[in-house]
Write a structure and sequence with these properties.
Helix content is 74%, strand content 0%. With 130 residues, the protein is mainly α. The radius of gyration is 15 Å and the shape is globular.
Length: 130
């Protein structure tokens, strides 16, 4: 493995685990709370299920290296939505009540890197589609 391949693998795994945990927490904490919060900020509550499922399933896909570029593209859209709709108003670092968009921006840039470069090391995609 070369340095770029290992670095890319680490980015894919960290992004995958991070999104998986965010999705899992939404379901474990009671998805109805997330649905209510979405409704309260003017987003149809149904999208809470879409977002949580994307985070959960997309996180697993990244960990396994399945559809890395496609999943990462969806995560870019998700992070842009979060930044524009929710986080931008509270600023980069946020407020005592809400985190800013610094983590969302970092996730967005990692996802963008994966869309551009892919991630072949230790991936199911590479094993099946050489």
């Amino acid at each position: 493995m070369d340095k770029l391949g290992v670095s890319t693998l680490l980015l894919r795994l960290v992004l995958g685990v991070s999104f998986f945990i965010h999705g899992l927490v939404k379901f474990q904490g009671g998805i109805e709370h997330t649905v209510g919060w979405f409704d309260s900020i003017g987003i149809l509550g149904f999208f809470a299920y879409v977002v949580a499922t994307l985070e959960l399933v997309g996180g697993i896909a990244l960990i396994l290296g399945i559809g890395t570029r496609v999943v990462s593209a969806f995560f870019i859209v998700l992070m842009l939505g979060a930044i524009v709709k929710v986080k931008f108003a509270v600023g980069f670092l946020g407020t005592p009540e809400m985190a800013g968009y610094e983590l969302d921006l970092a996730f967005l840039v990692i996802a963008l890197f994966l869309v551009i470069n892919g991630s072949k090391y230790l991936s199911i995609d590479e094993a099946f589609f050489k």
